[in-house]
Specification:
Layout: H1 2-15, H2 23-26, H3 42-52, H4 58-67, H5 71-76, E1 82-83, E2 88-91, E3 94-97, E4 103-106, E5 115-118, H6 121-136, H7 160-170, H8 179-192, H9 197-204, H10 209-215
Antiparallel strand pairs: 1-2, 2-5, 3-4
Helix pairs in contact: 4-6, 4-8, 9-10
Length: 216
């Protein structure tokens, strides 16, 4: 990532005549180690859903498991992104770390990341119940985050991994499944069910179907 950033910056500097050569482009790229996916099968997903459905965070976990959304996209979700009557949600922003080290709402990294995601009836019901509970504590604005912690603050995505491990243990499933593996799980199950690659790429927000094929 550092090399890519330097290469882009020095390319701009070279175009502006500030440097004679883009040395980052000449540097040999270090090998990239890809973390192995640890996906759940359909039975594992059913077991996990059974556990999360009995928790206060049911709406969040059901959405995460069934939509393949990234953690930052889930955290960035606002109520005006959710169409419960239409049974869809719109991914328009992401909660991400900025250059200053702090988190904030940002535009998705690519235009393809902006997408409409269908929701299962169970997720619609869970989100509707969540909205009703929030309304009991006061008016819910369109720009309010959908998923919050016990204090009403936007969820802390750094705490999702340990929480997931607890839920996996309760479900009797391997606890080395990472949060991002829920996204991989959704994709592999869609493909196994016969959903075409182009549709899966659109659901995941991949730039092209080639990316989806390379990953899965």
């Amino acid at each position: 990532h550092v090399r890519v950033t330097l290469r882009i910056a020095l390319a701009e500097a070279q175009r502006d005549g500030l440097v004679a050569q883009n040395v980052a482009a000449l540097a040999k790229a270090p090998p990239v180690k890809n973390n192995e996916m640890r996906t759940l099968d359909a039975d594992g997903v059913r077991k996990l859903i059974a556990v999360v459905s009995d928790t206060d965070g049911a709406a969040f976990w059901l959405t995460a498991i069934t939509t393949g959304m990234r953690a930052g996209e889930l955290a960035g979700l606002q109520w005006d992104d959710v169409d419960l009557d239409g049974g869809v949600l719109h991914v328009r922003r992401s909660w991400a770390r900025g250059l200053d080290g702090g988190f904030g709402v940002k535009e998705p990294k690519t235009d393809k990341s902006k997408r409409t995601v269908p929701l299962t009836p169970e997720v619609v019901d869970a989100l509707r119940l969540l909205h009703q509970r929030m309304e009991a504590d006061g008016p819910v604005a369109d720009a309010d985050p959908v998923f919050t912690d016990a204090a009403g603050q936007r969820i802390d995505i750094s705490k999702l991994a340990p929480r997931l491990r607890v839920l996996l243990a309760k479900a009797g499933l391997p606890t080395d499944v990472r949060f991002h593996d829920l996204r991989h799980t959704a994709a592999t199950l869609w493909l196994a069910a016969g959903v075409d690659v182009k549709t899966v790429a659109d659901l995941l927000g991949h730039s092209t179907a080639v990316t989806t094929m390379n990953v899965y």
